[in-house]
């Protein structure tokens, strides 16, 4: 098998916004005329000079790009996608420049994270000098992201590089400039890196609109995407290149599978009654042993809070590693993250504990293994993270799963087997995001204006708005022009004006304000954390820091801290002694559910475990599934095991009251929606007060009185009819939509970003929401807020499909003598939400001990 090209990079850093040049000593030599047919041979020669052989997918990619075709390259992480696309783009531009002398930006490289720009520039620069020398051309690589300083932005405007690395937000800013037509007049190729990360998000919609705009400026430009973990590839291609180009686009899939090995640390003993909430730190000795066995380890957690806890625990366990450990997540200061990345790159760090902040980007050669702490929650995620290791010649990518409780053993087994089999989740493109459209209309108006028909045609050329009707388009245009019917009296909402059949930005001041707020990334208000003596540690959410008093201790950026003062914008801190009893910041976004594909794989493992107990001749189980045999036996004895064809419902009684446990296996968010829906429908028939709880396997309804419901009653309760109406009614949907409207209003330009607190931002958005609800009821952003709150909070589409599936299943209702092993973790979720930290831990531990004693009898 031919070896993948190495991606080792020079250690020289590229300052943000600066350019690298491939000009050599004889840069004044006239360009050689490069024939199209020789360009592929030039790429081949580059590999030959390094005693390497390119993969077939690399050859196919650069040949397709040189020929001027659009497409998507889908290949595993670490197999050389970057080189394939980069060589094709450079060769294409070199061929075109032999006929027409061109200056300015020739290639746009879109990265999903601005933090990746410097590493990407380094990876593109490494082969550039030799490649351009063979081609007889001279190239520069530059970066333009949110981290680029004002001085560097000015230098870029004076001398644009041939290749520019940017983000969707910064590209939109460039498209809003008055001279954008001139800036992109020589553009040949656009490459969208990590396309799977943008697909299905508002940033993906923003990218689609930007690509469509670039095609309007340069009709001959080609678009290529790079992806590693996607199932719906045809849909991904169409979304990338646009509906009109999809039939002629090329999909290239790599026949170069990376060698990946998966394993799981299995705790001993196995708990029959597992529960979430203790971070899995009882496996700390095994984790430390695994880290010690490798030169460099990348340990992933699912949340930033978990990363803080594990980093602190590893440091406490091995104080001699103090200088070779690092923490990396999105709230840690950029300089601290840079230090961690540099340590991974040069192999000086023993372990870096990280979140998804290191899921993407240029590979770190020294990383020998990856630890996944907690359930991976998705098959694509475990593949992506496993691919971050083993990038030295002949190395194997290794990932070790660290379950935080017994049920996660099955989830790890299911994810491991599905990943080995090549299964991966699809990512559906987002459509009709009118807040993104409103922002784009103003962006184009800033750049010298547009004619209505031309921009409408341009917008319709995206999958995101292919089905946009004339009425919705006219509404979006009117909204940008005067804020709709209710806000037309306020000048700040009249952002564009028509003159002589062309729409322009209403004033230079509005253009400046719009550029400062371009983007679709919204988050809760954050405050900076700084040392009293000077220096920045990062940011935490305002909701956390505002609950602390002066002198309170907390853990952040891997350091025990004491709050000295909070002035509303900055939390000033001092170092604290000891790390016991520290509070850990909690960030929103930790409610990651099991994917649909992984949920089905988990249920299949449960079925196989049950069959194995009944049939001694059944095929051997994965070690993770076999390890939880005591749990499976107790579940089968006290209740039964759920299957694909049945919906298991358990009824139990405890000192807390009466409980209903229902197991659809559809992920936490769907279960939260189903719990609220059933509780509301039950209350409509029989007035009752119910407490709700949910995890990825099922949900609970509990109350003081027993609910006398049989299988027929549950069949009625789970009917899909009037789902949208009932769900919105039971969830205080208006208030939830009002909160969601804050994000939509920010993207659409109704409220501005900045340093205002979350309360101030929410108040502004809430006031606009109330005005629109009363005086502009047909405002399409209100309907979008209702749709998004249901999708974001409860995965509405998946919930609807779950109800359809339940309608075809047999409903089995069982009375259990006590809480079953599958019911216990859901009950524990409810207890955690009701009691203080000390009380809930004591209560859950006591109940687990009582149930364990009963199971042994």
Structural class by helix and strand composition: alpha/beta
Number of distinct beta strands:
26
Share of residues in strands: 15-25%
Q: Ranges with pLDDT <50 over ≥5 residues?
A: 1-34
Order of strands, widest sheet: 1-4-5-3-6-7-2-8
The main pleated sheet reads as: 8 strands, mixed
Indicate the overall shape. globular
Provide the domain count.
Answer: 5
Radius of gyration: 28 Å
Count of discrete alpha- or pi-helical segments spanning 4 or more residues = 33
How far is the N terminus from the C terminus? 57 Å
- Would you identify the CATH H-level superfamily of the largest domain? P-loop containing nucleotide triphosphate hydrolases
Question: What do you see in this structure?
Answer:
The chain is α/β, with parallel strands linked by helices. The protein has 5 domains: 12-253, 3-Layer(aba) Sandwich (Rossmann fold); 260-421, Rossmann fold, CATH 3.40.50.300; 437-516, no CATH class; 526-575, no CATH class; 639-855, no CATH class. The protein is built from 33 helices and 26 strands. The strands form 5 sheets. An 8-stranded mixed beta sheet has the order 1-4-5-3-6-7-2-8, with helices on both faces. It has a 6-stranded parallel beta sheet with strand order 9-14-13-10-12-11, with helices on both faces. The protein has a 5-stranded mixed beta sheet with strand order 18-17-21-20-19. The longest helix is centred in the C-terminal third of the chain and has 20 residues, at 837-856. The termini are far apart.
